[in-house]
């Protein structure tokens, strides 16, 4: 049914928009903490983003942040 398909597309977009709103908060917090040298705290915000906002437009940023922090920790530890 075409109406059902349109409704589903609308709901998916609405869900993604809501996830993006939350993901922006997480990514900004993680970046600020990272600049302050608080990598462990930043890592938690990146993980929360992936857990709670898996369909957002910011998942790749979170993955890159996690890789950057963990590779730095592995080099220094």
* Binned strand content: under 5%
Total of helices: 3
Q: Give the integer mean of the pLDDT values.
A: 94
Structural class: mainly alpha
Spell out the helices and strands N to C: HHH
Biggest β-sheet, characterized? Answer: none
Overall spatial form = elongated
Radius of gyration: 16 Å
In words, what does this structure look like?
The chain is mainly α. It has three helices and no strands. It starts with a helix and ends with a helix. The model has no long low-confidence stretch (mean pLDDT 94).
List keywords for this structure.
77 residues, mainly alpha, 3 helices, elongated
In short:
This protein is mostly helical and 77 residues long. The protein contains 3 helices and no strands.
Record the SSE blueprint:
Layout: H1 2-35, H2 39-52, H3 59-76
């Amino acid at each position: 049914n075409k109406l059902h398909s349109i409704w589903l597309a609308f709901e998916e977009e609405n869900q993604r928009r809501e996830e993006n709103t939350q993901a922006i908060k997480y990514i900004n917090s993680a970046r600020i903490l990272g600049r302050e040298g608080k990598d462990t705290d930043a890592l938690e915000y990146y993980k929360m983003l992936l857990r709670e906002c898996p369909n957002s437009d910011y998942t790749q940023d979170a993955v890159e942040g996690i890789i950057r922090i963990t590779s730095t920790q592995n080099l220094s530890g």
